Amino acid sequence: MMPDRMLKVVLSGDQGVGKSALGYGLAAQDPGVPYLPTIGVEILKVQYRSKKGLLYYIQLWNTAGNVRFRSISSCFARGAFAQIYVFDKSDLGSFQSIAYWMAVTNASQCQLRILYGNCGKGEVEVPYEEAANFANQREMLYFEQSALESKPDSVVFDLIADFSEHY
Ligand SMILES: Nc1nc2c(ncn2[C@@H]2O[C@H](COP(=O)(O)OP(=O)(O)OP(=O)(O)O)[C@@H](O)[C@H]2O)c(=O)[nH]1
Ligand SMILES: [Mg+2]
Predict the structure, then answer these.
(1) Is the CB of residue 127 below 6 angstroms from any atom belonging to ligand 1?
(2) Fewest 10 Å CB contacts: which of 25, 91, 121, 155?
(3) pTM score, two decimals?
(4) Residue 55's domain is classified under what CATH number?
(5) Is 167 exposed, middle or buried (0-12, 13-18, 19+ CB in 10 A)?
(6) How far apart are CA 54 and CA 42, in angstroms?
(7) Which residue from 17, 35, 149 has its CB within 8 A of the most atoms of ligand 1, so it is best to mutate?
(8) Residue 156 in 3-state DSSP?
(9) pLDDT in tens, 141-157
(10) Atom of ligand 1 nearest to the CA of 62
């Protein structure tokens, strides 16, 4: 079946924040346990039916957070419709890195930016208000959830589809 829309979506953020956990959940793929650190980039293919009934073919670029791959992060972001910046709510440093990730991935070049606070990993160091304010100032939508509980029908794709259908 031909999709109505094809979109590239990129996941970025520090090592170990839960990008792969989120990506596999959104793609309904069982990666096997435990998760291995991503090498370079992995492209997950996802089909999604929006509330308005459009069929999306989403290429989810699950990138590596490890410093070894930083020189290629900007290439992976090229041509993205949406970028999802992931941090771990129990790790302040990963939240402070978001500005860095926005810079290397040319955040202003894509139509939609989502800040995703993974709240599944432990005791909260970054409160909701702080993350939501930061997102607001940087023209991002803010959303928080446990990455391990993400599913293809998650609100993440609804946000992307709603935006795409108004765009
Ligand atoms: N309990 C719990 N563990 C999580 C959650 N999200 C991620 N983890 C764990 O945190 C570890 C790192 O998660 P990944 O998804 O591999 O992190 P990543 O951002 O893809 O890391 P890189 O690929 O190295 O950049 C894994 O052991 C996951 O199982 C969560 O929501 N809850
Ligand atoms: Mg990964």
Answers:
(1) no
(2) 155
(3) 0.96
(4) 3.40.50.300
(5) exposed
(6) 25
(7) 35
(8) helix
(9) 999 999 998 888 778 99
(10) 20
